[in-house]
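Input (structure):
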C-alpha cells in the first residue's frame, strides 16, 4: 500500500487551490506532476553544472557529460536494457516513433510489405506508420478491438490471420490512453517475432505506471515520454536493440553524430550518438534520471496496484451516475489507472469546464484517438486518469462535480 499522504508532500504543485477549491489533479494521462527531487535536479544542474556535453575538457563540461551519460545508464536500468547505448534521448514518444518510422521504415519497407498496428493507437503511433507506408508502398493493416465486457481489448484471434510473413513491423500501444486497456505486450512481441516482424511498443502510458522490462517483453523498439512519468517535458526515450540501431542511418544529421566528415560526405558514430544530432536536452535528461530514482523509491508494482484500485473504485462510483457510458474493459479485465466516460447530451468540454470550477482537472476530447472515437460511435469522452498521489477522496470530488454538471444540463 502506498503512503499517499507522504507521497503528496513530495509534489509542491498539488498543494494549491483552483477556483477556491483544493486542486484535484486527474489529468495524469496527459502529463504527470513533478516531485521535488526532479525539480531539484533541474535547479542543481543549471546552478552548478550547466555546460555542453561531449565537447569540452573543462570541469563543468565533464560534470555535465557524466551526469548526462549517468542518466542514460539509469534509464537503461529502469527498463532493464542490456546496454545504455540502447537508450536514445528524444523529445518524447512522438519523436521516438517518428525516428523509427523514418529511419527503419526508409531502410526496410517496400511495396508488398505490411505494417501492422491496432485500431486503438494514439495518433502518434498511427500517423507515422501511415506516412511510412505511403512513402514506401507498403500496406498498413490494423488489429481490431473487441466490444462487450472486453471492450477495447485487442482481437487476438484476428492476429492469426493478420500476422503473415509479409508483416515487417508491428507497432502497438502497451496501454491505451483512452480505453485504459493493458495489452499483452510480451505475447504480441512473441507472435510478431514468429513471423519475423520487428516490434515497436508505445509505452507512453505504461513505463511510469508499472514494472517494465524490455528484455522480458522481447521488443525491438520501445518509445516513451519523460513528462508522463514525473520527469520534465521535452525529454523522452527511444529504446532500440543494439543490433538494429547500429544498422540504421540517422534520421537527423548535424554535429555530434559523426566519426569523420569531408566535403563529400560523413560517417556515423555508433548508437546512441548517431541518433542525437546537435546539443542534447542535457538538463531534462538528468532530471528524467531523477524521476526514475523517485519512482523506484516508491515501487512501480505498488504504483500499478494503486492505479488499479483507483480505477475500480472510480468505475464503481461513476456507474451510479444516470446515463453514464463507461468506455473500455470492465471490472476485472486488464485495465490501467484511467477511466473514460460519456453522457448522452452533455459534451465532454462542458463537463471539463464545470469540473474546473470545482478545482478538478480532467481531460475531454478525442484524446488523439479520432478513428477509435468514430468506431465507438462517439466524438469525445471525458477522462479521469490517476497516479500515485491520487486518493479515493478525489474520486468523491470527481463524482460530486459530475452530479452538479448533470443537474445543470439534464435536470
Ligand atoms: N502515445 C500514447 C499512448 C499517449 O498517451 C501519448 C500522449 C503519446 C503517445 C504522445 O506522447 P508525447 O509525449 O509525445 O506527446 N497522450 C496524451 C493524452 O492522452 N493526453 O494528452 C497527451
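Output (sequence):
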Amino acid at each position: 500500500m502506498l503512503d499517499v499522504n507522504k507521497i503528496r508532500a513530495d509534489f509542491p504543485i498539488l498543494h494549491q487551490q483552483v477556483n477556491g477549491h483544493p486542486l484535484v489533479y486527474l489529468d495524469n494521462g496527459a502529463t504527470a506532476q513533478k516531485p521535488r527531487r526532479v525539480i531539484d535536479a533541474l535547479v542543481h544542474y543549471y546552478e552548478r553544472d550547466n555546460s555542453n556535453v561531449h565537447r569540452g575538457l573543462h570541469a563543468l563540461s565533464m560534470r555535465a557529460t557524466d551526469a548526462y551519460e549517468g542518466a542514460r545508464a539509469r534509464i537503461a536500468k529502469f527498463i532493464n536494457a542490456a546496454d545504455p547505448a540502447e537508450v536514445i534521448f528524444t523529445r518524447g514518444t512522438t519523436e521516438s516513433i517518428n525516428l523509427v518510422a523514418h529511419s527503419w521504415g526508409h531502410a526496410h519497407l517496400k511495396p508488398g510489405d505490411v505494417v501492422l498496428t491496432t485500431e486503438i493507437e494514439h495518433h502518434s503511433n498511427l500517423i507515422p506508420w501511415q506516412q511510412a507506408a505511403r512513402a514506401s508502398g507498403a500496406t498498413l493493416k490494423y488489429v481490431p478491438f473487441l466490444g462487450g465486457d472486453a471492450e477495447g481489448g485487442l482481437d487476438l484471434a484476428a492476429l492469426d490471420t493478420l500476422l503473415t510473413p509479409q508483416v515487417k513491423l508491428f507497432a502497438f500501444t502497451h496501454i491505451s490512453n483512452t480505453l485504459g486497456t493493458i495489452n499483452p505486450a510480451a505475447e504480441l512481441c512473441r507472435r510478431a517475432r514468429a513471423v519475423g516482424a520487428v516490434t515497436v511498443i508505445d509505452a507512453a502510458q505504461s513505463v511510469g505506471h508499472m514494472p517494465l522490462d524490455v528484455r522480458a517483453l522481447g521488443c525491438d523498439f520501445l518509445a516513451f515520454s519523460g513528462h508522463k512519468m514525473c520527469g520534465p517535458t521535452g525529454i523522452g526515450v527511444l529504446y532500440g536493440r543494439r543490433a538494429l540501431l547500429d544498422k540504421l542511418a540517422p534520421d537527423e544529421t548535424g554535429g555530434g553524430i559523426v566519426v569523420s566528415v569531408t566535403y563529400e560526405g560523413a560517417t556515423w558514430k555508433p548508437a546512441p550518438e548517431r541518433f542525437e544530432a546537435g546539443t542534447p536536452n542535457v538538463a531534462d535528461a538528468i532530471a528524467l534520471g531523477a524521476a526514475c530514482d523517485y519512482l523506484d523509491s516508491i515501487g512501480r508494482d505498488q504504483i500499478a496496484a494503486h492505479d488499479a484500485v483507483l480505477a475500480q473504485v472510480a468505475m464503481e462510483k461513476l456507474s451510479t451516475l444516470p446515463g453514464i457510458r463507461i468506455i473500455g474493459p470492465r471490472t476485472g479485465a486488464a485495465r490501467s489507472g484511467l477511466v473514460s466516460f460519456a453522457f448522452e447530451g452533455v459534451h465532454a468540454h462542458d463537463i471539463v469546464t464545470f469540473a474546473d470550477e470545482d478545482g478538478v482537472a480532467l481531460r475531454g476530447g478525442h484524446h488523439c484517438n479520432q478513428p477509435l472515437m468514430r468506431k465507438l460511435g462517439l466524438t469525445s469522452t471525458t477522462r479521469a486518469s490517476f497516479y500515485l498521489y491520487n486518493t479515493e477522496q478525489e474520486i468523491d470530488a470527481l463524482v460530486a462535480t459530475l452530479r452538479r454538471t448533470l443537474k445543470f444540463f439534464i435536470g
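Notes: The longest strand covers residues 167-173. Residues 59-78 form the longest helix (20 residues).
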